[in-house]
Batch of 3 targets.
Target 1
Amino acid sequence: MKHLLTMDELSKEEIEELLNRAAFFKKAKKTKFEKEVYAVNLFFEPSTRTHTSFEMAEKKLGINVLSFEPGASSITKGESLYDTALTMQAIGVDVAVIRHQDENFFDALRSLDMAIINGGDGCGEHPSQCLLDLFTIQEQFGYFEGLKVGIVGDISHSRVANSNMKVLKRLGASLYFAGPDSWFKKEQTTYGKHIAMDELVKNVDVVMLLRVQHERHDEEIKFDKETYHKTFGLTEERAGLMRENAIIMHPSPVNRDAEIADSLVESEKSRIITQMTNGVYIRMAILEAVLKEKK
Ligand code: CP
């Protein structure tokens, strides 16, 4: 595995190996790189979880982390992403984690020897989030084949949904969608049925909620938080209809009382905080995989 750019580029076996390694790291097991390894995290869009959990993963693996602030870099003087990345490679960086507003930004960087990890590309993909979601689901259920997963909300703008729907279908899960019709693309019916939220919550093993991506809405959308919560949100009433062993997931940041009732974020069925914790272990596994030859 030279880079981690999209979920489609990972085989089932590679996914399985990454989940196994994440479980290994979660049991407080360690690994060692024989040479000094250097990482840089280039975040051109805001992030709390992805940025800090990659940094935590890097530190737990003994990787040296360079600091980088786009606003204080030569990007402000017109430097291209390729030239920034090339500079990082030239000064000795082994792996760059990049979050960027442009879909497929990584296509221009594929030829670099330095490993590239996609930390989210516009509305494209979010492979490390997808893998931590898979890890969390596997911890809970132990399988994907036949599992019923409901993905709810701003599906068309969500890179998390985009990565997750493709890979969950490939792993044998059955998918259902709910949310505003205008936030669901016709081609996404390839992956599953779009149904009413009340029907979805009663029938799935995983209720995967998505953040409303206001920053990606080109059109002027009239959004009323209360109406959205009542129509498509996971209210306490709807949570009461969920199956006994069903779980709630959300990649976060959560818009409390929009996608999910405030009281449910840390409830018994919620795995939202576990997802954040698991993010560190899956990112350790990803870093180890792309840096394998340096061990
Ligand atoms: N889930 C996720 O990508 O969160 P951040 O935007 O905080 O990194």
Target 2
Amino acid sequence: MLNLESNIKFIKGVGEKRAELFYKLGVFDVDTLIHFYPRKYEDWTNTKTVNEIENGENAVIKATMITPVTEHMVRRGLTLFKCKFTDGETVINVTIFNNKYLAKSLRTYEDYILFGKIEKNLTSASMSSPKIEKAADGIKIHPIYPATDRLNSKAIAKVVKTALDNLGEIPETISTEIREKYALIPLDRAIRTIHFPNSQQEYMKARERLIFEELLILQLGLLKLKSSKKEKTDVVINDDYSQEFISLLPFSLTNAQKRAIKECIDDMAKGFPMRRLLQGDVGSGKTAVAGALIYTVIKNGYQTALMAPTEILATQHFESLSKLLEKAGVKAELLTGSVKATEKKEIKKRLINGEIDLLIGTHAIIQNDVEFKNLGLVITDEQHRFGVKQRASLAGKGEEVHTLVMSATPIPRTLGLIIYGDLEISVLDELPPGRQEIRTDVVNSSYHGRIYKFIKDAINRAEQAYIVCPLVEESENLDLKSAEEYATELSENEFAGYNLGLLHGKMKPKEKDMVMKAFAQGDVQILVATTVIEVGIDVPNATIMVIENAQQFGLSQLHQLRGRIGRGNKKSYCILVSDTKSQTAQNRLLTMKKYSDGFKIADEDLKARGPGDFFGERQHGLPKLKIADMLEDMEVLRKTQECAKEILSEDYNLDLPKNKQLCVEITKMFKDIDY
Ligand code: ADP
Ligand code: MG
């Protein structure tokens, strides 16, 4: 008998070698195996005769074998096995490639189900390597698992079947009352059915139950992670110094910026830790809001931290903010992975002593050995790049610090509310004045000559340009421009005598910094880059964004890239270069010409790519889901949010016996999420 913890190698027919193959799929024990769901199904219930099938169609045919198998060695390594079947009307010539095991198992005058593509001729039909099962076996809907080269779907199905047959009842996670309320079938039945459904209806019920369960566990976990919210804090911001900071700026704030600053400062005065999300499209001026809050909190006697997802961005924030704030006597430091160990030690010492007011950095800030004397506010920029755990861990840096997360990712509002749960939200729904609409064009590569000329003209006006390529290095199988190769080519030919810079993710942080600095100062005129410049980079003097092989990028990504220009008051141009022949791809690119609003573009992106891609797990830092889909299953997500609150209000610590198993599952789901 097996139990959920049994290692996969103890299942009959698996053993050490096979187990290794399962490990690669993330399947380690019976528990992970039974939650390794089929990717799709082949419905073998609907059998037809050859006469009912179109030539070339995929079909399921019930047929009797009428001749023994003959073996034909074509050459070394290629043996064909041939035999004939009949469906009662038509003779079907079947060829099997190399699969001796299958060929030897077939018996004349037995009934089989053949699954595959049919080729019809005048009087007979043929099938090449169809899937063949004994009709007597009676499996009707075949699960298709995400397989690997050496472990095919059929083999996986067999192991799952053996495991389920040798496993007692799977412990129930959801209490009877909740199951009744939401019309959910028992977990044991759902799991067995999802692997081997007997009908479409049965399958749907199983799927419903498992999606509900997964999203419920997600919601419970998130609610518990956020539970620190109601606790009081001693960090009370009584005095508003934002005006002083604003007077340091070379521009006046938009109303949206002013409103956001006020909302935050009011929040921080209440005696409860602020938990707020600042959403604003690219270029809406989130950094100035952050600056005003940082300044105010420091003036109230606390330390502050600002975290960015990349070193480039952290460095950029440091350069711009520390320049401003130093005038007002604020001490800022930059802490990233590339800061030398001795320097790091020094910074840490000064942090504990309270000699540093503002620490800017990447994830390195939240490593455990960084301690503050009296941290009051933590701001994370481009929030969607952080994992849930990182958010939690950062908040743990001070007793009960205020946190603000800033994001330019336009996520549909309802989804945002669910993912960010009880965060308050401020929105910058207004761009700074004087911004000109960016002109966007979609062209093919025959325009390169004109594009280069256009860039040269801009450089003559002392402006700068970005050229973005999808790849870093030359690629063998794709005809795509790589940044490295392209930069060399341009600097030797078209732009000989100009200053070109190259920036990509594989460069050392120090090198990246140098290039970025040179570009920001105007020493580099053209920056050839990969998408490392996608987030946050701010060089207002850059007015041209050329994106090569633009069809390779998602719309939201293109929007972020385009957001790198049009940041000053000069007219800016985005040129999407693509030779795609696909009408869909072409239309997708034209969306960029049509819309400038990030939310509109996100909607289009969603329609074009489907939710799976749009919400790649890393985008929001939530655990990987096995069966549910945050957008497709939005209705269920809402229901489970309600349900999770119900459960927690009755049994906050999930101590009751009926909720015990839920607790186990929450721990499991959240154990791996710390990117
Ligand atoms: P994002 O919201 O994308 O992070 P930034 O904070 O980088 O935007 O701001 C974009 C640019 O707009 C920066 O160059 C910034 O100095 C400028 N900016 C911000 N607020 C204003 C404003 N109220 N008026 C004029 N320019 C502004
Ligand atoms: Mg920004």
Target 3
Amino acid sequence: MSLSLQTKEQVLKQYFGYDEFRPLQAEIIDNVLAGQDGLVLMPTGGGKSVCYQVPAMVLEGLTIVISPLIALMQDQVQALLANGIPAAFLNSTLSNSEQESVIWKVKLGELKLLYVSPERLFAGSFLDWLKDQNVSLFAVDESHCISFWGHDFRPEYTQLHRIRENFPQVPIIALTATADKVTRKDILHQLGIEEAPTFLASFDRPNLSLTVLPGRKRLQQIEDFLNQHPNQPGIIYCSSRKSTETVAASLQKSGYNVKYYHAGCDAAYRTQTQAEFLKDDIQIIVATVAFGMGIDKSNVRWVIHYNLPKNVESFYQEIGRAGRDGLPADTVLFYSYQDVAQQTEMIIKSELSTEQKNLLKAKLDRMKQYAQADICRRRILISYFNESVEKDCGNCDVCRNPRTLIDGTVIAQKALSAIARTDQKIAMGMLIDILRGSHNQNILRHGYDQLKTYGVGRDLRTEEWVEYIGQLLNSGVIDIAYDEGHAFKLNAVSHQVLREGRSVSLVQFVPLEQRKMQEIEAEEKAATKTKREIVRDALFERLRTLRKQIADSLGMPPFVVFSDAALSDMAQKRPINHAQFLQVSGVGEQKDRQFGEAFINEILAFIQENPQAVRTEKGQTYALTLELYNRNLSVEEIAAQRSMAVSTIFSHLQKLKAEGESIDLSKFITERTKETILDAAHQLKIPIAENAPIGPLLEHFGDTYQGWQLRLAFLIAGEGVRMDVEAWREERGLPPRPVKE
Ligand code: ADP
Ligand code: ZN
């Protein structure tokens, strides 16, 4: 198979159906094609695969992809095959005979990409054997696994230096989504490609919206969210196994299509649940962080964190599972001070060294900063990864609803005073009860109703107090003793506020309902602004249903048939023939061949059933008529399907013909009809010309023929005989044609 004459752009279009490369992809590919090694750092969903899959198709020979994620190999190969790229994998899940068949394909040069696990690569004499095959490129996926410093070290990866030793001439491209500086250096070193350039893509994922919601009434808020995002697949992350089960159960009760997933579930259940999610059979997964590794599902539309993650790295990795197709996706984090308290307590009570504890606390602190941000949240996230951010993102809740600051000095003083008067022994619940003047037993028993501060905070509702006290804790105005039942403590700042009138500013409390309304409005505004929004109209839903049917019949996940991005583009462009279908982003030649007809038919059916939905875009209406004509429908049938007058369709066809489309108008009229009409015209002395007056003829025939048939007869006759109107008039002794009718 020799495909080496194709350019990278041609390959991208023909096999992947994309018109242009994303930032850095082209540079990376050029580097590989020049025979150079390289290290690629791109966030999840950034488009790493294209960086070696395109070169694989441009280069002659075989590309070997080394990946530790055995479970993913099959999916990746399936996706490549669906794009018409010959690929296979070799790992321990294959039987001997299956392996044998793959080996044969390699020998025969039938494959362009071969995925192997590192174990398989170094087993027996495989590497030696490969030397005799025409290997053009090695791609090391998840290359951070090579490093002790990476978070996912795999001992098998330490042997990868043997690639360079055995294949000094073959370029190596290493790829990863996570690697700090130390790990990066280690990857290059261990692979023996120290001199290779590093391509560092931005880690920003602008398509992910960022929202933090107060951790109150979480279930209710989730249901509201789900109702606003019907049918969209998503993941809810919880911090404990138990809560995945309870949250899933309660959503199930409300009628949602949901399952839970955690490391404690048995293997069969986990495999099945994961598969159901991939196939869109399950809409929602409520899971611990155990879920997600090795999930390549590109159409996860949202990720919700029920609890605060332990650190920004995990958070970013988890939300990164949404919107891998580059289309807008939503992320929501629920945040409450209790979550921080709980996690801090866990760290303190753990068996770790003080140093380790401090590290974990510092990381949690950064996560807290994100949750509490009064400035653009993306700035905080991105700067965490040492990238600088030029401007506010416009796609986080803070950008959408800038915070209002209020003078919170008096509020702070009330709280601090109550803490002081109770000898710094009380925690959140009691503090608020005192401030709000509650009559509960505990208050009375302790005599707290006698305090001077009892009831001084009645002007604020409980949830307002929760919010403000949380803010005071977070800004260090109040301390908390995790080892004393979370009792509040005063510190130096507290005393300054209490005694010296140090001022405190707080972010104004916004009731949940109001906040939600603001969010929805802002989101709608933002949606109309973003270029690449998802069209989720009736057609999209029909195409989605069709995708699911086709995927099921082929035993594939729907997103392998077409990504949401492709489907959305399809719903916008409404292609009705193959040339148009190939214009859809994500449709390469193979997918056009395999799925084009079914999707085009669905679009045609949709247009026929919703004629009003056909946009009056220039050209679209002609193209549709042409398509139906090419499908051998009669003028009447086309008119009926399009709910248009026959004469309109006829004029379409005439125009299409004038523009050079090959249209045989004579098939819409029998020879006899034509003759009858022309004879009558002769008798009535009507010129056989395109714009001849046909009124008298219509009268003559009554209901027998319609205007378009008369004109059609004239048109065909005019063409056949090339009749000159003036000559015809002269012949009959008629005066020259008047200039205007
Ligand atoms: P990663 O491996 O970095 O997580 P993928 O390679 O899976 O990312 O790519 C993520 C998504 O982006 C896939 O759906 C892929 O088809 C799409 N994609 C990649 N490159 C392009 C491109 N140049 N134009 C449009 N979509 C692209
Ligand atoms: Zn922002």
